[in-house]
Amino acid sequence: MNKREESLSEPVWNLAELLERVDNDQELLRDLLNIFKEDFPLTMRSLESAVALGDLKNSARLGHTIKGMLSSLGGVRTAAAAARLEVIASAGETASLKGALEALKGEAASLLPELEAYMGEVRH
Amino acid sequence: MKILIADDDALSRRLLEKTLERAGYEVTAVENGKQALEHLCKLEGPRLALLDWVMPELDGPGVCRAVRKRSEQTYVYMVLLTSKGTKEETVLGLESGADDYLTKPFNAEELRARLRVGERILLLEDRLVEARENMRFRATHDPLTSLLNRGAIMELLARELHRSHREKKSTTILLGDVDHFKQINDTYGHVVGDEVLIEIANRLLGAVRSYDFVGRYGGEEFLVVLNSCDPAFAPGRAEELRKSVSNCAIQTAKGALSLTMSLGALMSSDWGLRPVEELLHEVDTALYKAKASGRDCLRIAQPVTKTEPPTAPLSQPVRLRR
Prior knowledge:
The structure holds two protein chains of two kinds.
Chain A: H1 3-8, H2 15-21, H3 26-53, H4 56-73, H5 76-90, H6 94-123
Helix pairs in contact in A: 3-4, 3-6, 4-5, 5-6
Chain B: E1 2-6, H1 10-22, E2 26-30, H2 33-40, E3 48-52, H3 60-69, E4 77-82, H4 87-95, E5 100-103, H5 108-140, H6 150-166, E6 172-178, H7 181-188, H8 190-207, E7 213-216, E8 221-226, H9 234-246, E9 250-252, E10 255-257, E11 261-267, H10 276-292, E12 298-300
Parallel strand pairs in B: 1-2, 1-3, 3-4, 4-5, 11-12
Antiparallel strand pairs in B: 6-8, 6-11, 7-8, 9-10
Helix pairs in contact in B: 2-3, 7-8, 8-9
């Protein structure tokens, strides 16, 4: 199984791992999700601009940031996609950069509804 | 215990903050390396730090290097947080001065355990510093009076003389000797003699400014260095010290004892850069004159002029009399 296949075998969102990390603190979990909801779209937009400009340095930096926030939140597959983008940008593989961004957006599209759904649940 | 978190990712910062607050830490959270360095370099700043590797302004290893350069500071235990995982990067992080590293996303239990290691190291450092300070104090202070001992005050005097010469300021050296101290020991015993010495030391310390030096020079002899003391005021200051001993009886286990002190003084108006031993010989001569004049008085030494040879060769040890 290659890395891509390995990451696909992971859940989109590992809630159990996240709950363990926050010691089952629902209030903290809500805080984290709110921070993510605010920061993630902004960081993604900056990443999209950097990729469009072929700015490898900023693409790598922003890929790293997104990887970090998704790892903390248990968004394992999306974090892996961000990590791949970071590696590609750091290696200067400009040709693969747009593909890596699309893959990241695809994974994020699976993750975000799960997070939204959970936030809706815990809000009530 | 205070701990610093430095991470540019708000989500990670919040998670760390809450996890550590729950573990009982007093948390300061910042978002870049430059702010982290500012906090860690504060006098009472945190001594435990969790530093993200990749940060704007200054990265985690950069903070570690900058903190380690400040060798005079108390030790800061630093843990690098990294999503980088290669051996080369681990080595680079530790070589930068980090004590440990933790891979993101962290496990809360592991994080707390690693910080407890840091606390143990810091506790060990505190104990070592305390032991070193105790040894330094014992090596430089008289065990009975807690005043500077002879070696320490001689060293401070030599340093002060160089400084006052360089800055063209005046220094006054006073040598005091408790009058008839032997009779106190002979009549009331050494325990009372010790009580007297302790009280006199306290009175002398209370009568000088915070930047003057007082030391126990010998048995009942005290050396006082009045730094940056205008020669015009020196005799008055010396008289105050003398009277601090004689003005009020000393309470001892054998009752109140009235004591006096004779003083010799030397002012640095024109002594230039002469050896400490030579100056002490002159102040000792002045003290001898005070004793010969009936005790309980001050005598000012007359500095040797350039045409006059010193009264004793430089190699001759200073001999003090009671």
